[in-house]
Prior knowledge:
CATH topology of the largest domain: Ribosomal Protein S5, domain 2
Number of helices: 10
Mean pLDDT: 96
Distance between the termini: 14 Å
Bound molecules: cytidine-5'-monophosphate
Helix content: 25-40%
Number of strands: 11
Shape: globular
Oligomer: single chain
Low-confidence stretches: none
Strand content: 25-35%
CATH architecture of the largest domain: 2-Layer Sandwich
Number of domains: 2
Order of helices and strands: EEEHEHHHEEEHHHEHHEEHE
Amino acid sequence: MLKGTAPAKINLTLEVLGRREDGYHALASVFHTLHLADEVRMEIMPADRASPLEIELEVEGFPAPADSRNSVWQAIARFWEAMPFGAQVRVWLHKCIPMQAGLGGGSSDAATVLRLLADWAHAQGLPVPDLQNIAESVGSDVPFFLRGGCAYVSGRGEHGEPLPPLPPFWWVLAKPPSVGVPTGWAYAQLRRPPLTDSEPAAPYTERLVNALKSGAIQTPDALAPYLHNDFEAVVLPAFAELRALAKQMERLEVLRVLLCGSGATLTGLCHSEAHALHAADALQQQGYWSVASCLVGGNILSQ
Ligand code: C5P
């Protein structure tokens, strides 16, 4: 049985710079993995040359599709195109990361399955296909999760430059149970103009990247002024439930409320683990899905 951990991410900055010719948007963002993670288990039973690839997916925890709509399914199918024989591949997903939450759960599951498949193929002496290529074709956020940690992410999300990870700062995450924000809808609401030839500015991301490279951020208070997400301007006005949640988080004295990706999770930067646990408990009692979690570097991926 192969086992892996698929961490969630938050975007410490997220700037959407303009529309590309392929319909996607160019972005600049600092991604960081969290301790909150899905668990992935996988079994591979190779079959003969003539047999097709059969995929079986079982999901427990938060609901997610258990068929070809799941990015895990697509990742396995793409990976297997290079294999000279069929197989039965079984995957069990224990989902602790909610869907349509802006936390990258589906993308992270797919990247973890790709890493497990690559390790397996390597151990069998089989050729390992280019994971970056497959990851890009499965989803814009998938390539980041092949490495995790902290990264400056650009392009449509597929380019990642590793950055020094931050200390394990604590956050409270929360989501109204009935609100999900479709990513495509959120991008369209931004009404960004087409990109031009000149390099678009990403001032928030640039400032944070420089601070991370110089090691200037050693406390949550030092991080708070750098946090920024362009989607807040369109997503918060559209969802009264998210504005109400933001108010509740402010009452719990978080240092800064920040939208995760295009939503619908809000995260609050906390002073300490005890602060985050207290805030998560208070928000659960108000009916929100809520957890406390801390930032992690790349090590979670090898657990
Ligand atoms: O790549 P992914 O499947 O995660 O993207 C979902 C949708 O979000 C895309 O179909 C597109 O509408 C939008 N998107 C975008 N620009 C990006 C990433 C996603 O416009 N960089």
